[in-house]
Predict the structure.
Amino acid sequence: VLPLLLEPEWLVDERGHALDGPVRIESGRIVAIGTHAERAGAVVIPLPGRIVCPGFVNAHSHAFQRGIRGVVENKHESHAHDDFWTWRTRMYALATALSADEMRAVARAAYLEMLRAGYTSVGEFHYIHRASTDGDTCAAVAAAARDTGIRLTLLETGYARAGPGKTALPAQRRFVFDGVERFLEHAMATATAVAVDDQVRVGLAIHSVRACPLDWIETIAARARSLAWPLHVHASEQQGELAVAMAEHGRSPIAILDDAGALTPLATVVHATHVSAFDVERLARAGATVCLCPTTERNLGDGICPTRDFVDAGIPLAIGSDSQTRIDPLLELAAVEEDERLRLMARSVLVEPGASLAHALMPMGTLAGARALASDVGRLAVGAPADLVSLALPALIDVSSRADALDAILVAGTRADVHDVFIAGVPVVLHQRCVTLDAARIERDAHDALRAARARELETRAGH
Ligand SMILES: [Zn+2]
């Protein structure tokens, strides 16, 4: 593979600071930046009108949920009140119907969409371990990532029950194992099978304190600590979940996780929407990351989390596309700041005095996500993996002020502004065209897979 030299207008690092290009890439890594980056022997890729930054990290994804976008927005006569729990029923219908091959096709389309939107890494919070017919959906998701080239951290997720004292619902049977040791055996076997190189890595997850009893939480947390693997957990997304935790444990989900040894610097708590000051203190003391998924949290009506309190406590904040309602790192990042503005009724609420919006948001989209996945991506630095994206410079602004131009992208940009995507120095998208992938075919396959799964879903429903 020949070295590459990218020549954008300028560069932006993971902390939202502008620096001069170009950037030279060899053997998948950044080897020189600025005047040190020589043209000799390199394929030069001019990127006029664009800037280059680290690829975005999607720290929380359920790829298959891409299949329910748009089909869960109609309100049924039977439930005038539509919320997270009614949405979940619809989501389970698809989760139950998909075969392993269909799961792969849908995940492949979701990952393709992520790549085109500027996400170069994804943390897949995977809890559907078995397919409807046969086959292993964990292997299917890993294969989907390999099909597209996106970097994957497959988070093998423990799921034990419908709730305290309640065995799994029929729709949850594909998620559960008969005991935590059986689950961990499955996770280790999956790791051996799929995590054979840098592109696919593994970690562990606890679905939630609702879905896992205390011995599962403690055992999974201990295994994650001993392996030094990332450990993710959904917590405090819904108020209903708080009531259940209080009734079972007399404590909040965050307190349960902390007392069980699950909160460490390698831990990521997803959502943390309904948290107390004491919860925030525990998260900060443990050094855990919080992953916010604001476009999903809005769509599901979860609530608004106290983001400024997390920042004040020094908690790293990552982002995730979660339900795939939107797959767009720029929209996700702007939502983090703007939702907090709505809550606090003020402007620039996450921006420190003397700084700009990009300084607040870029680390969330890059560094913190990489930390959540225990990966060394998410940096624009010599020696870092060359996972890079280019963004179009905005119109109607004096681009000689690089800080203003960057803030214009962060406040109003979308995936439509992402032009080029490189993973490990390989151009995957150039000038908004897929170079390595047949996008039309991937989308057609996913469409066919979803149609087949829905037909099976209707058949099953008619049969009951
Ligand atoms: Zn989730």
